[in-house]
């Protein structure tokens, strides 16, 4: 195998005929076992993590080839790795009683325990490489090398000597390593919500969301781009993955945008920006949000309510930028759109499971039961509509598809567990937090900028859950030590972990869009960053004003939301409209002041902003013409 192939991602195989049926059937059986373990059996956390990881790896090595040019049929090596994964699972299951009673680091590992632990470690590294490529794999290898040989470094970077047995003991036989919080969350909350998303897609949920978005926004200026914003947000809150969201909804929206006058660069960027925000949109959100629940100890309902306002403001800003650009370019909407009533006649059933999820969430059920209620209600209601009714084969494939969708998530979470285990052994997390506190000194703002930079850097080329996990371990302790509340601090990190998916130079979501738009990925990423501008500054503001996270009185929350809508409008204007640089600066500062937690400042600013918008609405322009500010008639003439 060439060196380039060794450090590349694997290729997803497409099975047909009997192999496909067999693969999906076994995948469905595995999914049912996971559901049973979560709802009925609820075994020991370490045991369920071990069986989940070993079972997932068996599927992973058969469905993902070793490199991009691999055959569509599993090779002998793939079968060996699959059998090795299953063998590890069988071994761990046989010695499960010994694992429960043994004392970590005091009871030495037997030769067989050391052997199977080492094998599973190597399988995890290969699974990480095949699913995420060199980015996360390289990070994991650096941490593993540091764990084994970091004692050779001088203080303060060095640590005590760690022998190989202790190294394997912590990483493979405790809940501080591979089978820690990330895998436990992946094997429970995340798996069940992915099951809900798989079934929803099977019964036409993605198509329905596109049709609803088209009915609501398709005929307005820039209709195709607005459809992308709305439909990608709706689908992304269920899929939780910016890259998969781009692949699913972008395959429809990007070609339509290009056909109706948008440049390939802007069409791809709209889809990337809209898809990225979906994982922060309640009620489902993405897998990183469930990991946030476990790390912070805050219940899922509180986190979902806290995430609602920033997500709405983010999408409102993206939507406004699309609208202003469409007005500038004179782009029309889609002339023929199905009436919304016709769409609802066939797709009304999709509102029932989303309503059930929301109600269960507000009633305080755990995410596990929320996902189960949503999936059960979807299956039941789909039976009453011929357009959404599934046969037995479709049901089996829908359940089996969940296992396939979990492959990259599970591998990434297992890899993150390796890093966390290493940080636990070496104490590097506390050292990193101490360095951040030392550099930032007493400046909370500087600390936030450092945290944002580190999180985006960690997230380059990584799945969002992995980026958030590493940031939560390395950066969050510094935030909390500086006096920041736990919820805003971790929501801050979650947002920048999400934004790493569109931030150059890696921008994995932009690469997914580039293949559809036929445009350079970096050009798409740069434009997507501009469209997602609200996502980069909202986290700083909800740390400043917690009312944006639904923390505070009703008056404070209401004022924060109204001020937020006006603030992101000014932000969209300063990005899209032609104006002098100092007017842009005034608009930017004004947008920040509107978020002030002091009601004696924010309320008068809101009233003044309302007056400005009323004048704009009445006269068709703003009273700053002599400064070059008229967003409807004096637009920048640069190409889109």
Low-pLDDT segments: 623-640
Q: What structural class do helix, strand and pairing data support?
A: mainly alpha
**How many domains in all?**
3
Please describe the biggest sheet, giving its number of strands, its sense, and whether it closes into a barrel.
none
Radius of gyration, whole Å: 25 Å
State the order of secondary-structure elements, H for helix, E for strand: HHHHHHHHHHHHHHHHHHHHHHHHHHHHHH
First CA to last CA: what distance? Answer: 43 Å
Helix content: over 70%
Total helical segments: 30
Mean pLDDT: 83
Per-chain topology:
Blueprint: H1 3-6, H2 17-41, H3 45-63, H4 76-94, H5 96-101, H6 111-132, H7 134-149, H8 164-172, H9 181-202, H10 205-217, H11 223-239, H12 242-259, H13 264-277, H14 287-296, H15 300-329, H16 340-347, H17 351-362, H18 367-382, H19 392-426, H20 428-440, H21 444-459, H22 464-474, H23 476-481, H24 486-499, H25 508-517, H26 521-531, H27 533-544, H28 554-576, H29 581-593, H30 599-619
Helix pairs in contact: 2-3, 2-9, 2-19, 3-4, 3-6, 3-19, 4-6, 6-7, 6-8, 6-19, 7-19, 9-14, 9-18, 9-19, 10-11, 10-16, 11-12, 11-13, 11-15, 12-13, 12-25, 13-15, 13-25, 13-26, 14-22, 14-24, 15-27, 15-28, 17-18, 19-22, 20-21, 21-22, 21-24, 22-24, 24-27, 25-26, 28-29, 28-30
């Amino acid at each position: 195998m060439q060196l380039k192939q060794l450090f590349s991602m694997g290729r997803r195989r497409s099975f047909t005929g009997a192999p496909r049926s067999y693969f999906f059937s076994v995948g469905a059986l595995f999914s049912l076992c996971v559901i049973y373990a979560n709802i009925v059996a609820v075994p020991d956390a370490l045991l369920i993590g071990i069986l989940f990881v070993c079972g997932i790896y068996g599927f992973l090595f058969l469905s993902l080839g070793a490199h991009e040019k691999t055959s569509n049929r599993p090779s002998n090596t793939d079968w060996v790795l699959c059998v090795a994964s299953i063998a590890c699972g069988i071994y761990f299951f046989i010695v499960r009683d010994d694992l429960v009673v043994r004392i970590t680091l005091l009871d030495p590992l037997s030769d067989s325990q050391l052997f199977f632990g080492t094998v599973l470690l190597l399988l995890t590294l290969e699974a990480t490489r095949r699913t995420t490529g060199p980015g996360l794999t390289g990070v994991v290898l650096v941490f593993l090398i540091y764990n084994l040989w970091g004692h050779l470094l001088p203080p303060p970077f060095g640590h005590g000597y760690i022998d190989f047995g202790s190294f394997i003991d912590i990483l493979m036989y405790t809940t501080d390593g591979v089978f820690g919080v990330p895998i436990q969350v992946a094997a429970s909350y995340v798996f069940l919500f992915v099951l809900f998303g798989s079934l929803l897609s099977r019964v036409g949920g993605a198509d329905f969301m596109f049709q609803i978005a088209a009915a609501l926004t398709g005929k307005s200026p820039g209709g195709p781009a607005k459809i992308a914003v709305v439909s990608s947000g709706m689908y992304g809150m269920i899929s939780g993955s910016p890259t998969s969201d781009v692949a699913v909804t972008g395959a429809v929206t990007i070609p339509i945008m290009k056909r109706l006058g948008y440049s390939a660069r802007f069409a791809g960027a709209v889809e990337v920006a809209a898809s990225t925000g979906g994982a922060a949109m309640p009620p489902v959100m993405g897998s990183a949000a469930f990991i946030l629940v476990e790390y912070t100890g805050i219940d899922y309902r509180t986190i979902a309510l806290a995430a609602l306002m920033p997500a709405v403001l983010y999408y409102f800003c993206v939507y406004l930028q699309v609208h202003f650009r469409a007005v500038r370019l004179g782009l029309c909407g889609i002339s023929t759109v199905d009436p919304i009533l016709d769409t609802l006649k066939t797709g009304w059933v999709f509102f029932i499971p989303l309503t059930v999820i929301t109600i269960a969430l507000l009633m305080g059920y755990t995410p596990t039961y929320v996902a189960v209620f949503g999936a059960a209600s979807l299956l039941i209601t789909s039976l009453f509509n011929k357009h959404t009714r599934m046969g037995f084969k479709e049901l089996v494939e829908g359940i089996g598809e969940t296992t396939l969708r979990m492959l990259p998530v599970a591998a990434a979470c297992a890899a993150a567990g390796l890093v966390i285990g290493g940080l636990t052994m070496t104490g590097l997390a506390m050292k990193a937090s101490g360095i951040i506190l030392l550099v930032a000194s007493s400046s909370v703002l500087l600390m936030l900028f450092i945290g944002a930079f580190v999180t985006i850097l960690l997230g380059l080329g990584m799945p969002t859950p992995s980026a958030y996990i590493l940031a939560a371990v390395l950066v969050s302790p510094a935030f909390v030590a500086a006096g920041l509340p736990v919820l805003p601090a971790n929501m801050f990190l979650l947002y920048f972990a999400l934004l790493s998916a569109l931030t150059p130079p890696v921008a994995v979501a932009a690469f997914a869009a580039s293949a559809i738009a036929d445009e350079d990925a970096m050009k798409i990423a740069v434009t997507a960053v501009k469209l997602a501008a609200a996502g980069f500054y909202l986290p700083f503001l909800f740390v400043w004003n917690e009312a944006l996270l639904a923390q505070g009185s009703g008056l404070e929350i209401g004022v924060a939301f109204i001020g937020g809508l006006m603030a992101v409008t000014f932000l969209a204007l300063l990005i899209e409209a032609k104006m002098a640089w100092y007017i842009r600066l005034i608009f930017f500062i004004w947008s920040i002041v509107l978020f002030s937690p002091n009601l004696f400042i924010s309320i008068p600013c809101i009233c003044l902003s309302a007056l400005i918008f009323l004048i704009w609405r009445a006269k068709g322009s703003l009273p700053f013409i002599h400064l070059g500010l008229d967003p409807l008639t004096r637009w920048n003439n640069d190409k889109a």
